[in-house]
Design goal:
With about 375 residues, this protein is an alpha+beta fold. It contains 17 helices and seven strands.
Length: about 375
Amino acid sequence: LGAVQFELADYQGSEKSYRRELEINPNAADAHSSLAQALRRQRRYEEAIAEFQKQLEINPLDPCNSYLAWTYIPLERWNEAAAAFARAARVDPKSAWAQAQWGRALAMLGNLDEAKARFARALELNSTAQNRIDVAYYMALSGFDLPKARSIAESALADRTKDLCKGQVVNGTPDCVKRLDLLRLSLDTLGFILLQQGQLAKAEPYLVAAHQLKSTSAPAQHLGLLRLKQNKVEEAVRLYVEAERARLPLDLPPNALRRELEKVVSADELNRQVKEMPAVGLRSFLIPGKFTSPKGETLSAYTKVSFRAMVDESGAIDGLTFVSAPGPFTSAAMADSKDFQLEPISWPGQALKTARIIEFGYAPNGNIKAWWTVAK
């Protein structure tokens, strides 16, 4: 039950279920770790840390070492994060992710030589474009060797651009969607590195394109930081609110955009805007009503329903072709599509064809939420 509630984004309900399980069996397998994840999603980091530590008392080799380390980051407890990532690397010596995050924590502590060794080891373990982007991003978050991070990100972006699915017809398969999401990560990382280097004009097209591809916490935060540096405070606030409403733990501790915004906007005003904004992304829309599949099954959280949206040169939707969807989606989406416009996406030297794949998921409030847009 706790796992199902977690997938439904009902983190308070998931917490209650795991606590009941632990009352019955204090040593239940993975229950402390699962409870910690539910607490972490509620940003109750100290409580999550305590539960991860209980899990490790039961099993010191539990993979939750990585999650424990990651939970220290929003609290900026870098010594403890570095120690936990070191343990995670010992538990799984082939984990490039643990090595890269360990390097990030070491860089924040000023241990630059050791950080350099960890980042290099991460690249030795995994040289894929996705891992190179991860390493470049963690280097940028810690301000470590930004020219090197930029070089890594540029090479990964070049690979990601060549790796897109080809053809005149949009391919809505999970593999093609994943490739586009990795492109978004590459664009966002390179833009963020350029932002860190103070090259605002060069950073802008990459950050805008990444945000258009997928409007989640990190792209919204990074673009918000750029807008704030450009003295576009109102847009920066809007992007901050968008990032907060994503409801995931933010990776810029303790939210760098919030910290900068509070220099020009009151904390009360920021909190008010977060509370009043609808619980959907700014570029998303709702289709009212609860739907069932053709087999009569109620849609579960994160059930993905895709359609291809052909758009004209101005970005207006010209027509929809569904890849997979139960019947009620078709008429509802077609009715809503006339008010939904998608901007053309481009960055230096590249542009995407005028078609998008939009995925829907079942939201706990009974509406269908378009939370993820990608383009090809």
